[in-house]
Design goal:
This protein has 17 helices and nine strands. By secondary structure, it is α/β, with parallel strands linked by helices. The structure holds adenosine-5'-triphosphate (ATP) and magnesium ion. Adenosine-5'-triphosphate (ATP) binds next to helix 2, helix 4 and helix 10.
Length: 372
């Protein structure tokens, strides 16, 4: 199974950070349309508003913008806001949609002056298209190849000034020459629970749902720092409130609904808990190999490594080591279990290994302090 399949399977889960086609319609209705309406990400918002304002003052399109960060944090939303704030038209395409350089050439040659060209998943552009984009971004020019074989000729075409907005969940995969052609790069971070509460209140207003402050708090704590997940959970809680409650979303409705959907108080779902619990109860906390762990929970290794693990590792509940996966003491505690002494020793050893590797004294506090 490829990474994309793992993503597609992930999108079926309540806690996946990716979205599927049906969900995208629901999302479109909830997207903020202006920078002021975009919650959180203060630095990025401030920097971006300067870039856009300055461009407006100069009467020229702004430099190319790269948006990077994990799924569901607002990259597509921001690209739409950029076009709207500039009063420009937005052309949308994506790395996987551009199979050949010719596909990109036809998009580029149809651009109007000042257009914003949004390229989603820009790290997945094919090599020849990528090279064509370098030239288009830097010199506003493309070479269009006409004819075949010995008679083929490259005809240079001027492009109008335009702004590329690239989005990527994997900035590390972008080749340096491409990264360097963006004048401004914004990295989106996970949202704090307080910011997610504001996302939720905003969505509740739009959907005309009555959402109490403590329910918003409860949902925000289970949303993994991701607005897409917060918006999805509030829709599931609304279902519960309309069918089993009185239509209002209060703390009880939030807790009961999220119990039905098996989303625990820290945002772990059934798969995450299955992985963690197999790790602790079947394998004594590890280390255990990925494929063995996957068999134990009845999933493909890719689903475990790409869907469940990133969040468990980020939360400090499990670790990936050269010898295999391990549960951290916080992971044991989260399941209400006590870690055996050997696990405590192992994590202390792991912390020391990390120290050895980095050879930096200021990580001491971070590696020794249990995170939860
Ligand atoms: N800062 C924000 N304020 C309010 N809502 C937000 C914010 N960021 C994201 N959202 C909501 O979350 C949903 C997902 O955001 P978006 O589609 O922009 O994520 P993305 O980063 O493009 O994800 P992917 O990497 O999967 O393409 C949107 O429908 C939007 O309503
Ligand atoms: Mg997107």
């Amino acid at each position: 199974m490829s990474g994309d399949d793992a993503e597609a399977r992930g999108a079926e889960r309540a806690m996946s950070p990716s979205s599927n086609a049906i969900e995208r319609a629901a999302e479109a209705a909830l997207r903020p349309r202006t920078l002021d309406d975009f919650v959180g990400q203060h630095k990025v918002r401030e920097q971006l508003s300067l870039v856009l304002e300055a461009a407006k003052v100069r009467g020229r399109p702004p430099e190319h913008v790269l948006l990077s960060g994990p799924p569901g944090l607002g990259k597509t939303t921001l690209s739409m806001i950029i076009a709207a704030e500039l009063g420009a038209s937005l052309r949308i395409t994506s790395g996987p949609a551009i199979q050949h350089a010719g596909d990109l050439a036809s998009v580029l040659t149809s651009l109007e002056p000042g257009d914003v060209l949004f390229i989603d998943e820009i790290h997945r552009l094919a090599r020849p298209a990528e090279e064509m984009l370098y030239m288009a971004m830097e010199d506003f020019r493309v070479d269009v190849v006409v004819g075949k074989g010995a008679g083929a000729a490259a005809i240079p075409l001027e492009l109008p000034p335009f702004t590329t907005v690239g989005a990527t969940t994997r900035a590390g995969l972008l080749p340096a020459p491409l990264r360097d052609r963006f004048g401004f790069t914004a990295h989106l971070d996970f949202y704090s629970p307080a910011e997610l509460e504001r996302v939720l209140q905003r969505s509740a207003n739009k959907l005309e749902i009555a959402l109490s402050a403590d329910a918003a708090r409860e949902i925000s704590l289970r949303s993994r720092g991701t607005p897409r997940i917060a918006n999805r959970l509030v829709r599931r809680v609304r279902d519960w409130a309309q069918v089993r409650g009185d239509g209002l979303i209060d703390l009880t409705a939030a807790r009961e609904a999220l119990t039905v959907y098996e989303v625990d108080e820290r945002g772990l779902d059934r798969l995450d808990r299955g992985v963690l619990s197999a790790l602790c109860t079947l394998f004594g906390g590890g280390p255990v190999g990925l494929s063995t762990l996957a068999i134990a929970v009845g999933e493909e290794p890719e689903t475990v490594s790409e869907v469940a693990e990133p969040f468990l590792v980020r939360e400090g509940l499990m670790g990936r080591t050269p010898r295999g996966r391990i549960a951290t003491p916080a992971g044991w505690r989260h399941l209400g279990l006590t870690a055996p002494r050997s696990v405590m020793m192992d994590s202390a050893q792991l912390a020391l290994d990390v120290l050895d590797e980095t050879n930096e004294t200021d990580v001491t506090e971070e590696t020794n302090a249990p995170r939860d």
